[in-house]
Amino acid sequence: MSGRDMAKPLLGHQTIEGDASITPAAGRTIGVLGSGDFARSLAIRLVCSGFKVVVGSRNPRRKAGLFPSAAEVTLQAEAVKKTDIIFVAVFREHYSTLCDLADVLVGKILVDVSNNTEINHRKESNAEYLASLFPACTVVKGFNVVSAWTLQSGARDGNKQVLICSNNQEAKRTVAEIAQVMGFTPVDMGCMSSASEIENIPLRLLPAWKIPIFLALGLFICFFTYNLIRQVIHPYVREQKNKLYKIPIEVVNTTLPCVAYVMLSLVYLPGVLAACSQLYYGTKYRRFPDWLDQWLQHRKQIGLLSFFCAALHAVYSFCLPMRRSHRYQLIETAVKQAVEKKMNIWVEEEVWRMEIYISVGIIALGLLSLLAITSLPSIANSLNWREFSFIQSTLGFIALVISTLHTLTYGWSRAFDENQYKFYLPPTYTLTLLVPCTVILAKVIFNLPCIQQRLQRIRRGWEKGRYVKFVLPSATGEYTSGETSSNV
After folding, report:
1. CA torsion sign, 450 to 454 to 455 to 457?
2. pTM
């Protein structure tokens, strides 16, 4: 596999993929103990990769039809005798059923592919427990983060990383070789003590999304409550009008763009804060606070949630004219105009405002779609760093500016209309402008030549108040005095 197709290793551990000392493994006989979904998918992938597969089952006659014809399905004891590398594809609770095979398993490599049902459910990992049952075997933990679907469809349609750990380096290299031939990227996670960490990975539900999701939900609740007070509660208190019908569509549709707009600005706000920190301390080597570091790491998820809310806003807006209440209001307006004998209700300013508002909104949604697509790993890996940076940084900032224009054309002059202040509360869109306008203003300041040059120097390694003295060697090979030195 090329370096471009290789996924980034987790936790900074070393990949074994590029090791030239690994020899081809196709044609080797591999054993699989178990006849479940994962065992079948594993056997299919091994056969497709050129391995000879022998499957050990307690009921070989009944299970033979579930496996590819190229795989030999036999009793567990017979399967173990025919290979030195065995994938143990059974649950931890059934490990004890393999104890009768202890004598024939001596010296074999056992690859534990099992997972737990809960994070840190037991003190010792499944792989460590298997090693304690068969001390004469070499146990390797691996393939547990790969799904059965990925095994059947190939590494292109799923996660390409196979996390491997073991106390035996040679056994670990052998399993890594098998993973590479199958089309996966082996990642060395160290010794067997890492097995618990590897087994916890498939059990974590969107660990990188928790903070962004809670942030989006918090913003949604705040803006929804604010809009509810203005659009539903205020008419009921002041005019005794029942506006509850607005809650499912209109109030939600007013809330979604607020969340999307603020979330988009929060993607670029941590970069502004990081730049301020670097300018203040005059170095890029000072560690950011933990909260800012976490914020920077979650920018991708925050951006995708912003696109999600913007897409929902577009769908809700498209459905607004379909509501029965909207039709009633159109008829009511037409009747009033007929009674008042108004023949021309055309307002040029409002027509232009809505045309610009919708057009700018479509452009903003298109740019957000481009940002979301290029953040996908399959697309991002096909771009070089300059292309990716241009789309995510430059076009992303342009999307924020256009979203600001979309918001301003929506508000137009209504921000100065006292009738828009319900319970003395300003319109919602005026609140959403605070953070984005701050980010845009900061970006403009950072692009001033005097500040931009200083920021570039800092990011290239320059530090305030620190100088490195270079002394040039003389022609004789001896170092001269400070006259020929230079300060950086």
Report:
1. positive
2. 0.75
Q: Which two tokens stand for residue 294?
A: 């976490």
What is the residue whose two structure tokens read 């301003």? 408
Match 């570039």 to its residue by tokens.
Answer: 456
- Contacts of 481 by beta carbon, 8 Å cutoff, 6+ apart: 471
CB 107 within 8 A of CB 168: no
Between helix 434-446 and helix 252-281 the angle, nearest 10°, is 30
Percent of the residues in the chain that have a pLDDT greater than 70, as a whole number = 89
| Rounded CA separation 264/266 (Å) | 5
Cβ–Cβ < 8 Å for 95, 113:
no
User: Residue type for 41, please?
Assistant: S
Q: Any residues with CB less than 8 A from the CB of 401 and at least 6 apart, and which?
A: 440
Per DSSP, helices labelled H in 1-116 are 37-48, 60-63, 76-81
pLDDT band at 23 (very low <50, low <70, confident <90, very high): very low
How buried is 104 (Cβ within 10 angstroms: 0-12 exposed, 13-18 middle, 19+ buried)? Answer: middle
Which H helix or E strand runs over 85? strand 85-88
203 falls in which pLDDT band (50, 70, 90)? confident
Q: Tell me the Cα Rg of the chain.
A: 32
